[in-house]
Amino acid sequence: MTRKKRRLMVLLLAGLGLGTATALTLTAFQDNLVFFLSPSDVIAQRPPAERAFRLGGLVEAGSVERVTASDGRPSATFRVTDGPNTITVTYTGVLPDLFREGQGVVTLGRLQPDGSFRASEVLARHDETYMPPEVADALRRAGHWNPAQGAAPPAASWNTAPRQPDGRSGG
Amino acid sequence: MDGRLTAGTGATAARPNPGGRSLHRFANPGRFLRATGRLMPFLWAAALLVLGAGLVWGLVLSPADWQQGETVRIMYVHVPMAWLAMGGYTGLAALSVMSLVWRHPLADLTARELSPVGAAATALCLATGSLWGKPMWGTWWVWDARLTSVLVLFFLWLGHAALVRAFDDPERGARAGAILALVGIVNVPIVKFSVDWWNTLHQPASVARLDAPGMHVDILYPLLVCAIGFSLLFAAVVLARTRAAVMERRVRALQLARARREEGAPA
Amino acid sequence: MTLHWWHIAVSYLLTLVVFGSLAIGAAARHRAAKRLLAQLDPRGERP
């Protein structure tokens, strides 16, 4: 029995050491593990203009302007916000299907001299709420939620709400 | 904890046990085969029934998502695969502790048969995630903390499957595999909490979180049924493989004994 | 069929094919081992 206990103790100690080492490593490389910077991070860190990085946040309500460039390619200007800070983004190309005001986005590009961000890639980042279209419509009609303004109300207030009897419908 | 382990299967718990309250009561392969043999038909039937119901519910009856549309249905296979990849790996680590501390031969055998199935589930999680990411995010793959840590999990599964088979002496292979599995367990909390600790393209958890699930019940319930169905199927596959491995080992021992007898007889 | 439905269909088919072949493979291996065992050891414990 003592041999088994000793083996268990060795395992526990090794696990403790491994866990501590991993935690320290992850903390040390914290900055490299971040996939994108928020507008506040960008304003605090001021990445140099020649460095490409990812900027992420919510598309600010009422900020999207879509234009068609002279060569026929679609182009868009919008503001990305994390609440306290906002950065203007310009992008030429096709935006993802889920792109809309109030949606999360992650954009890859460079800072411009005027402080705006020139993106070469825009990815949509949806949040963790899943709801049927009827429930989303009901929340909007009741004035409980405007998707352009940001996240849905607390899940407990809608995740058991009945769907309309007409049943399923496409998104 | 020793006694608790067998209580779960029910079949042997009631029988008086001369072996005492030891983990090694299941080390007796005959007893293991008898106990699980009665369970197998029910396990297969339950897996197919629950999974069939869950997939029809998810693919046909459940509503679309208000912004993702029909594509949200990929979730009903993607999320169970992700849970199995992580839960299965936690099981592999538990088997490895049993193997290293108690030198339990059945734990070695189960771990060996578990890792290819776990690797398959993780590969499916990555593939379905990619198929979901392209239409929703606009990309098949990004190197964010969640996706990268799941890829590491896939390589850990593959590494374990290869390592335990790389030794001529199966016991040494099992020991090396158990150590790899236990070192790799640090990756499981990283997978789970990567979306909370760092900015990732992948969204945070909808179901396994402290507050109410961020998912409407009409989407949540089919997801849970699919998760139960896939878990039952996963368990059935692993158990069937382990039973086969136990019998194959007995076959090899019998063949060896017969060859030895025949060698000795003509003299 | 729209592109989105293609992605859904491929996801489900992939999952069913992989898990289906795992299940069939495990069942076949199990049956073969059981038959061999019965041949080698007819009096033995038949699981």
From TrEMBL, chain A:
One GO cellular component term: plasma membrane
Disordered: annotated segments: 145-171
Stretches in topological domain Cytoplasmic: 1-7
Molecular function GO terms recorded: heme binding; metal ion binding
Coiled-coil region: none
Keywords associated with the record: Cell membrane, Cytochrome c-type biogenesis, Heme, Iron, Membrane, Metal-binding, Signal, Signal-anchor, Transmembrane, Transmembrane helix
Topology relative to the membrane: Single-pass type II membrane protein
A matching Pfam family: CcmE
Domain of life of the organism encoding this protein: Bacteria
Sequence positions that bind heme: H126, Y130
Keyword Transmembrane helix: yes
Topological domain spans for side Extracellular: 29-171
Leader sequence segment: 1-23
GO terms under biological process: cytochrome complex assembly; protein-heme linkage
Subcellular location: Cell membrane; Membrane
Protein purpose: Heme chaperone required for the biogenesis of c-type cytochromes. Transiently binds heme delivered by CcmC and transfers the heme to apo-cytochromes in a process facilitated by CcmF and CcmH.
Family: Belongs to the CcmE/CycJ family.
Protein name as it appears in the record: Cytochrome c-type biogenesis protein CcmE
Lineage of the organism: Bacteria, Pseudomonadati, Pseudomonadota, Alphaproteobacteria, Acetobacterales
Automatic annotation (TrEMBL), chain C:
Name the UniProt record assigns to this protein: Heme exporter protein D
TM ranges: 6-28
Keyword set, alphabetical order: Membrane, Transmembrane, Transmembrane helix
